[in-house]
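Progress note, sequence design subtask.
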């Protein structure tokens, strides 16, 4: 069985999610066109240990930044490519890493369902079981 979602437990007890090569996200991108993706500036590659490219962000407050294009919400993230893949997937910010597509019971995240309906995107086939 192919993993539908890869769950990563961090040393500080946060949970991040990675997607396999083929996932419902690669035919969607609705969350990347809907939410403001804001996060702590310490994640920027201009800070020690940071990884998000600073040139792809806008300042929100003295301590928060967001991905360009998502400043107001309802617009396309600058990192979303035409094929609905993230151009900085390995360097994506924490909000993107913490957003699960599948819930623990294997159901699709209700926010995914809502956004897919809003943007007229077909629902993926239900998984046999999410990891």
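Output:
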């Amino acid at each position: 069985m192919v993993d539908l979602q890869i769950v990563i437990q961090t040393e500080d007890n946060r949970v991040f999610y990675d997607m396999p090569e083929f996932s419902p996200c690669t035919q969607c991108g609705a969350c990347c066109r809907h939410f403001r993706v804001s996060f702590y500036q310490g994640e920027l590659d201009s800070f020690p240990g940071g990884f998000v490219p600073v040139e792809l962000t806008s300042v929100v407050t003295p301590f928060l930044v967001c991905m360009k294009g998502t400043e107001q919400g309802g617009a396309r993230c600058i990192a979303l490519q035409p094929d609905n893949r993230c151009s900085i997937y390995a360097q994506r910010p924490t909000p993107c890493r913490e957003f699960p597509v599948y819930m623990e019971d294997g159901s699709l995240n209700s926010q995914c369902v809502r956004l897919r309906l809003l943007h007229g995107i077909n629902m993926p086939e239900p998984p046999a079981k999410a990891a």
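The chain has a mean pLDDT of 86. Work on this subtask will continue into the next period as scheduled.
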